[in-house]
Amino acid sequence: MGRLLSPLYAKVSPKGEKQLNKEDWKLIQRIKDQVQNLPDLDLAPPNCYIIIESDGCMEGWGGVCKWKLDEHGPKNSERICAYASGKFFPLKSTIDAEIHAAMNSLEIFKIHYLDKPSLTLRTDCQAIISFFNKISNHKPSRIRWVGFTDYITGLGIPVKFEHIKGEDNKLADSLLLRALWAV
């Protein structure tokens, strides 16, 4: 998916060529087709484990809420129960976009995890993973990290952070582009 989307990233960058050519429109149609063929949603059972995957860029964000029967179940047993996307106004820096994508996803999918003992947040932003792996040793110094830490601790349940490779974050990435290219 990342290779499929790469020509369009230049189109949404501040200095990129804004004019869409015939190939761009074909690519957009392929993306729309993939988004239209998203898998059916499965209602999460009461005692399941929740996983949230998020992705962000300067212009917008995408998030997916998944469930599996137990925390240590295989990845192929995960089922999608919700997804969402949106745009940022004003534009955000790369790290701020990833942080806000995670917070927006957590906020929108709150109904799915508030009664759970814990959840996993997956992101392709290594800075978020590194920050939370070191948080016990360091105090956050930048406003972005203070706000994010406050949000996570304010959830009231433990959040496990996992890194997800960009190429494995296809659905959140597709939703992000859906928000950006909504016509």
UniProtKB/TrEMBL annotation:
<keyword id="KW-0064">Aspartyl protease</keyword>
<dbReference type="InterPro" id="IPR043502">
    <property type="entry name" value="DNA/RNA_pol_sf"/>
</dbReference>
<dbReference type="GO" id="GO:0006508">
    <property type="term" value="P:proteolysis"/>
</dbReference>
<dbReference type="Pfam" id="PF17917">
    <property type="entry name" value="RT_RNaseH"/>
</dbReference>
<keyword id="KW-0540">Nuclease</keyword>
<feature type="domain" description="Reverse transcriptase RNase H-like">
    <location>
        <begin position="49"/>
        <end position="146"/>
    </location>
</feature>
<dbReference type="InterPro" id="IPR051320">
    <property type="entry name" value="Viral_Replic_Matur_Polypro"/>
</dbReference>
<keyword id="KW-0548">Nucleotidyltransferase</keyword>
<keyword id="KW-0808">Transferase</keyword>
<keyword id="KW-0695">RNA-directed DNA polymerase</keyword>
<dbReference type="GO" id="GO:0003964">
    <property type="term" value="F:RNA-directed DNA polymerase activity"/>
</dbReference>
<dbReference type="InterPro" id="IPR041373">
    <property type="entry name" value="RT_RNaseH"/>
</dbReference>
<dbReference type="GO" id="GO:0004519">
    <property type="term" value="F:endonuclease activity"/>
</dbReference>
<keyword id="KW-0255">Endonuclease</keyword>
<dbReference type="GO" id="GO:0003676">
    <property type="term" value="F:nucleic acid binding"/>
</dbReference>
<keyword id="KW-0645">Protease</keyword>
<keyword id="KW-0378">Hydrolase</keyword>
<protein>
    <recommendedName>
        <fullName>Reverse transcriptase RNase H-like domain-containing protein</fullName>
    </recommendedName>
</protein>
<dbReference type="GO" id="GO:0004190">
    <property type="term" value="F:aspartic-type endopeptidase activity"/>
</dbReference>
<dbReference type="InterPro" id="IPR036397">
    <property type="entry name" value="RNaseH_sf"/>
</dbReference>
